[in-house]
Every structure is written in C-alpha cells, then in structure tokens.
Amino acid sequence: MSDEKKILYSGMQATNSLTLGNYLGALKNWVNLNEEFDCFFGVMDLHSLTVRQNPTEFRQNARKLYALYVAAGLDPEVNCVYYQSHVPAHTQLAWILDCFTYMGELNRMTQFKDKSAKHADNINAGLFTYPVLMAADILLYQANVVPVGKDQMQHLEITRDIAERFNNIYGDIFTIPEAYIGKSGARIMSLAEPTKKMSKSDENANATIMLLDDKDTIIRKFKRAVTDSDTEVRYDTEAKPGISNLMDILSAVTGKSLDDIQAEFAGKGYGDFKIAVGEAVADELAPLQAEYERLLKDKAYIEGCIKQNDEKAAYFANKTLRKVMKKVGLTEMIR
Ligand code: TRP
C-alpha cells in the first residue's frame, strides 16, 4: 500500500447469489479502482447473520462470493479482498461505536424499518445496530471513499456522523468517508417490472438475471423481458422503462453509448434487440463464469489469498483499533 493513494472500502453481504444488477451496478465498476485507490473489499459475513442462515449454505456462499470477486477481476495481489469475520477488530470497534450512537439515530434508518417489516419474527439487536458495524468496517481502514448504492447512502451518512462525533471528543482519529461517485454504475431494473430494481428475492425467476445463469437461460429471460407496445428502441425511462433498462444493460456491458445503441437498432424490432442484449450479456459473463468455476476448484490458491489478505486487513484495522482503545481510556494489554 502506498502513502499517496486514497483509501477505498466496500463490500457485499455473503448471503445469496449475485444478480446482473449487483455486477453491473457494483462489482464490475470496482475492478479498476485500484489504479486510483488502495482498495479493501470485504466479504461481509457478519452482516449476513442479522438474518437466520443455514450454516452450510452460508459458509459456501461466503466462499462463492470470494471467488466471484476474484473471478470478476479484483486481483487479490493488488486489492485487499478478505473476510470481515476474520478480522476481530470489526466487532471490537463496533461495540465501542455502539456507545457513541443514539437509539434515535438508528431508529430512523429506513433499511431497519424495511427489514423489520420483512422479518417481523426476528427483529434482533444486530439488525438494529447493523449500521454501526458498517461504520466500524469503513472507519477501521481510514477509508476516504466508499462506493455505495442509493440504498446504503443513509448508512454512510450515519458513519460520518459517528466519526465526527468521536473526533470532536478525542481529536482526529477517523478519516471522514465520502460516497464514491465515479463512473456511475448502472441501476439495473427488473426484467418483469422495469420500474422496480432487479432483486435476487424477486418471486418471478424471469425478472432477474443471476450472475451464474447459463447462456440459454439468459437469452430466454431477455426474450421474455417486459417492454411496451411501441416498436422503437429509444431511451425514455418514463414512457419506455423496459426498453430503457435493456439499453442501460447493453450499454453497461458493451461500453456503447445509448445514442449508438438507438442508431444501431433503428428500424429493427424488439425481438432482435432483446436477443442482442441477451447475447452480449452471456458473452460478458462467460469468461467470468469459467474463471469462477476454475477458482472454486483451486482451493489452495483461494485459501492462500484469503489468509494473506485477512492478515493484511488485520494489520491496518488493528492500528486504528489500538488508537481508539487508547483514546477512550481502555487499559492497554500487557505483552
Ligand atoms: N451493507 C452493505 C450492503 O448490504 C454491505 C456492507 C457492509 C458495506 N459493510 C460495508 C458496504 C461497508 C460498504 C462499506 O450492501
């Protein structure tokens, strides 16, 4: 890690399989960030525990997410790609920050309200303090920037509030993180209801492209994508949300501009257009999927990467944690 580069931190929960939306909206855009930043990407397995998990599947999903990060191009020699739960400093700092966070602040979190409604039978304290653990993730590494989607903006705001509150009492301990607004990731919508975000929990399997779907499945789902009764491939998110979403996807995958796409498909029907989008997506994902399969089999390599990066993450995290412990007056351990 160099001194001049700013620090970037992000991660995803280790719960389910990723969708094309997670990929085009986040992961794909993380791949070249290491040119500008020193990057940390966590497999956020502790956050996943706020919802009841099947232990075996959960462990597998965490490993699969790690392999997907690497297969997508996050080079583990360059980026610090590690497991959140392997660095105890996360939970240690989270506890301390809990004591600097108000119930009222956490009560206002819209994600807490949504998740409580969704999991009414398991509104646990972890769900409530979820944003504090996320603050600890970010602040431990003194991150300058955090690429986050709209749905995590409020959590980044509370992270900044907690950090500022702490700094006001104890001096400049934490870097105040900002949202990273780079080349903005595409916001991918459901193929069945294109005014809704694409989501892995959608009940309609045709609404969502999974990152590991095979080519036939991908093309079949695109063929069924909901569009409109018009025939023109034109970008208009209000009047033509379905076609606009497909154009966003094609643009994100091929790098072509929306204007070029409109010109290319002028006078061609929706049928051809949908197949073209499906093929472009399948072609983009094929090498990633092949690399993913290869990596999952190469246990020694993956485990070596995890070990090395867990240690690297712990080194940086513990530096901050030691400072914090000292500042709040906890007694140093005698070595
Ligand atoms: N809460 C984030 C999500 O669900 C995942 C996450 C946990 C995260 N800790 C983070 C993202 C720190 C960015 C930075 O998407």
Q: How does this structure look, described?
A:
The chain has 335 residues and is mainly α. α4 (89-98) crosses α7 (125-140), α4 (89-98) packs parallel to α13 (299-328) and α7 (125-140) packs across α8. It has a three-stranded parallel β-sheet. It is built from 13 helices and five strands. β1, α1 (20-30) and β2 (37-44) form a beta-alpha-beta unit. It starts with 5 loop residues before the first strand and ends in a 7-residue tail after the last helix. The protein binds tryptophan (TRP). Tryptophan is lined by residues 9-13, 44, 47, 134, 137-138, 146, 148, 152.
Précis, in short:
With 335 residues, the protein is mainly α. The protein is 53% helix and 7% strand.
Q: Helix- and strand-based class?
A: mainly alpha
Helix content: 40-55%
Spatial shape: globular
User: How large is the count of helical segments?
Assistant: 13
- Small molecules bound: tryptophan
Overall pLDDT level:
95
The largest beta-sheet arranges its strands as 1-2-3
Per DSSP E runs of 2 or more residues, the count of β-strands stands at 5
Radius of gyration: 21 Å
- Low-pLDDT runs: none
Question: Topology as H/E string?
Answer: EHEHHEHHHHEHEHHHHH
Distance between the termini: 28 Å
Biggest beta-sheet profile: 3 strands, parallel
Strand content: 5-15%
